[in-house]
Design goal:
two-stranded antiparallel sheet; five-stranded mixed sheet; about 10% strand; 17 helices; alpha/beta
Length: about 400
């Protein structure tokens, strides 16, 4: 017997694999790669799927309901869980009546495959595909559609429906069109393992536990999180994100020829690490383009590239705080940003091949994606509002 014939006959995957002479791992791989909808082996209403209610049981339920018996009493008589009876009655009522024959037909109608998919609608499908190819996430697509079409229910779709159209066996109707646009670059989810260099301790570090309380609630803009994404040949980009508006700035860093200790000034601390002075200068130039009200603090991980953090604070008045070791969730917005950026700057590539203009173009794409936390507005829109508010306050003060 072939594997697929066994699946068509309704055999469990492991049994069908054993009958076909292949391993379970191979069988599950075949299932994951196959995009067809397997025909249901239960084509006859008289055949009951394991665990489901039979037509005879439904007739018993209808009879006892007509006599006024409660759900628990019926469950005891049928030796079923009360929740099973309760769901059956609630799911299959028609005009507040439970009719066993109609309940049986409705159950089998819901069980038929393939089901009609909401994304089969042409207008909705075109918009979803367009947004996915612009590298919106499924959640962003769903949220933005509700914002743009508040009264058109047929244009509303959940992010899980989109994920199913991308991933799920037998429903991968969008896979061929947009799989290459997924941020992960994969057609299937997989667990992530933490990695990277071990965190050290820098001179004069102010820890995240000492941050002012106003930073924690994200109510005040101008508090930033930052980190590096590193490529081959010591190439890197500094990534910054505002905790309130989620507005991102990418800082192009030229490749560093030297690696190791940077000679300290007389009686000054040793600036150990990769490009610490270059890093400090690049961050200073970037933050100086913002009004003071929008550069209140910076939270970084414990990377040695921030060895010159004290000089950064002295030069532009920007306090720098450091997250605890092995605690990426303390800089969650920046970790999320870096994950998004890896679709444009993959690991194992030389990041220096991208110009400043190209890196800024990527930042513009990220900042013009709608975000659920912002009510499906974009970070660019939220940050522009903050800039206008700051300018109006400045004008009012000086006037």
């Amino acid at each position: 017997m072939s594997f697929w014939k066994g699946m068509d006959a309704g055999l469990p995957t492991s049994v069908a694999a054993r009958a076909a002479g292949v391993s379970r791992a191979t069988a599950y791989r075949w299932l994951g790669e196959d995009r067809e909808v397997l025909p249901s082996p239960f084509l006859n209403f008289a055949v009951t799927r394991p665990g489901s209610l039979s037509l005879r049981e439904r007739e018993e339920i209808g009879f006892h309901l007509a006599r006024g018996h409660g759900v628990r009493q019926i469950a005891g008589l049928l030796r079923r869980a009360p929740s099973t009876i309760s769901r059956e009655v609630a799911r299959n009522r028609v005009y507040d009546r439970y009719v066993p024959s109609l309940a049986q037909e409705q159950t089998w109608s819901r069980a038929r495959r393939p089901r009609a998919r909401k994304l089969d609608g042409l207008a909705l499908r075109e918009q979803v595909v367009s947004m996915l190819t612009e590298r919106f996430s499924p959640e962003q697509v769903a949220g933005r559609l509700r914002l743009e079409h508040p009264e058109e229910v047929e244009m509303h779709v959940s992010h899980e429906t989109i994920y199913q159209a991308l991933y799920v066996q037998g429903r991968g109707s969008l896979r061929l069109e947009v799989a290459t646009a997924l941020r992960s670059g994969r057609a299937r989810r997989r667990p992530q393992k933490p990695g990277g260099p071990k965190a050290g301790r820098l001179p004069g570090m102010v820890m995240i536990s000492d941050r002012p309380a106003e930073i924690e609630d994200r109510a005040v803009p101008g508090h930033w999180e930052g980190d590096l994404i590193i490529g081959l040949n010591r190439s890197a980009i500094a990534t910054l994100i505002d905790r309130t508006t989620r507005f991102a700035m990418l800082v192009h860093l030229p490749r560093q020829k030297g690696y190791g200790l940077i000679k300290p000034k007389k009686n000054g601390p040793a600036l150990a690490g990769y490009g610490a002075v270059t890093m400090k200068n690049a961050l200073a130039r970037t933050f100086e383009t913002l009004p003071e009200e929008l550069r209140r603090s910076l939270t970084w991980d414990r990377g040695k590239e921030m060895s010159a953090h004290a000089l950064l604070t002295t030069e532009i008045g920007l306090p720098v705080y450091f997250a605890d070791a092995k605690s990426p969730w303390q800089r969650g917005s920046n970790e999320h940003l870096n994950g998004l950026l890896r679709q444009y700057f993959p690991k194992g590539t030389d990041i220096s091949r991208w110009s400043t203009a190209e890196i800024q173009a990527v930042a513009d794409i990220i900042n013009n994606r709608p975000r659920g936390i912002l009510g499906w507005r974009t970070p660019a829109e939220a940050f522009a509002d903050q800039l206008r508010s700051t300018q109006q306050t400045t004008v009012a003060t000086t006037g």
